[in-house]
Design goal:
The chain is α+β, with helices and mostly antiparallel strands. 25% of the residues lie in helices and 34% in strands. It has helices spanning 42-50, 92-102, 107-121, 136-148, 166-183, 194-200, 218-223, 228-233, 269-272; strands at 4-13, 16-26, 31-35, 57-62, 65-66, 77-80, 154-158, 186-191, 203-208, 211-216, 240-249, 252-257, 260-263, 279-284, 289-291, 301-311, 316-322, 325-331, 342-347, 353-355.
């Protein structure tokens, strides 16, 4: 069993509090992704687990053993970095075997492990080459192979795909997912790319300014964001936000702003009742906006002016003006629209979000 637990984990650099009270339980064989913008503390958290950063306070345990004072080599972990860190003068075989040689494994065992890892990664024909003779994707596979031969309890990945081009990143995401399922090892993965986080993670940990904002499976974060930051960070294109005033009228609640007046859906009304007469933030994802049709309720629609049209093949993104605000709507690729044209959009009533203006928490 390779469970990883972080308890009240903190890291300070002089006056900078980089990681603040992180509490996280990672289950055996689970793939957990830490995601957030630059400077949010995700890599520092990973490096504390690896033993590459000292812990200011709190504790890290691996397989129920506290490892705060253990050096990295004694934690039974393997780390794959953003830069591949391959020895340029060594062959692929020697790069993969180097860590085992340092640990005094015998030659037959080293040869067996290297060849098994090469077979898993499909790099058997590259074993005699030097790193300079490899493409970026091949170098990344070698870096993965060097970690695999260790047979670690925990894999740690620090933005390993960020140096690859977009097409290769997609391919390597698939390969990493397959690799994790095949090896069945616990993995912690750091990225700033929310698409990477959503596609790879069994659970995703969203971080901001050193704090964990929300932990959950990808669709939980997408459908039920804990606050405005998570709502805006998860999902592509990003969620639309509008400042609205909540008005009570004839037993119903309405969200109002310049150019926008929609009826608050009945399931949300009880939670939003205490905000009557107050300001709040309305959130709606681009894919939950559509061009209004005859069957759409008039109290869930609003008029917009098209400012930009982005034709992406599988969808069309309409950048529209709503009063003085702007929104993005994702519509079918068959829609015909022109810049400056006015049209009416309808909101999916089951997919509306509201956030407290002061705390930014979901209402």
């Amino acid at each position: 069993m390779a469970r990883v637990a972080m308890r009240s984990l903190n890291k300070k650099y002089d006056e900078v509090h980089a990681v603040i009270d992180v509490n996280l339980n990672i289950h055996d064989q689970e793939f957990v992704v830490l995601v957030g913008p630059s400077g949010c503390g995700k890599t520092t958290t990973l490096r504390m687990v690896a033993g590459l950063e000292s812990i200011t306070s709190g504790q890290v345990s691996i397989d129920e053993k506290v490892v705060n004072e253990l050096p990295p080599m004694d934690r039974d972990i393997a780390m794959v970095f953003q830069n591949y860190a391959l020895y340029p003068h060594m062959s692929v075989y020697d790069n993969m075997a180097f860590g085992l040689k340092m640990r005094k494994f015998d030659k037959p065992e080293i040869d067996k492990r290297v060849k098994v890892a090469a077979d898993i990664l499909g790099i058997q024909e590259l074993l005699k080459r030097k790193p300079r003779q490899l493409s970026g994707g091949q170098r990344q596979r070698v870096a993965l192979g060097r970690a695999i031969v260790r047979h670690p309890q925990v894999f740690l990945f620090d933005e390993p795909l960020s140096n690859l081009d977009a097409k290769l990143r997609v391919q390597m995401r698939v390969e990493l997912k397959k690799l994790h399922e095949r090896l069945g090892t616990t993995a912690i993965y750091v990225t700033h790319d929310q698409v990477e986080a959503m596609t790879l993670g069994d659970r995703v940990v969203v971080m901001r300014d050193g704090r964990v904002q929300q932990v959950g499976d990808p669709m939980e974060l997408y459908n039920q964001p804990a606050n405005r930051f998570v709502a805006g960070f998860i999902g592509s294109p990003a969620m639309n936000f509008a400042q609205v005033r909540i008005a009570a009228e004839n037993g119903s609640l309405w969200a109002e702003s310049e150019g926008l007046r929609i009826k608050v859906p009945a399931p949300i009304t009880p939670r939003l009742g205490r905000y009557a007469g107050m300001e709040a933030t309305l959130g709606v994802r681009p894919e939950d906006l559509r061009i209004a049709g005859a069957g759409d309720a008039k109290d869930l629609g609003f008029d917009v002016a098209i400012e930009v049209i982005e034709r992406l093949g599988s969808e069309i993104l309409l950048d529209v003006a709503v009063g003085s605000a702007t929104m993005v709507a994702s519509v079918e690729p068959t829609v015909t629209a022109r810049v400056h044209e006015r049209l009416r959009l309808a909101i999916n009533p089951d997919r509306v979000h509201f956030f407290d203006n002061k705390t930014e928490a979901a209402i």
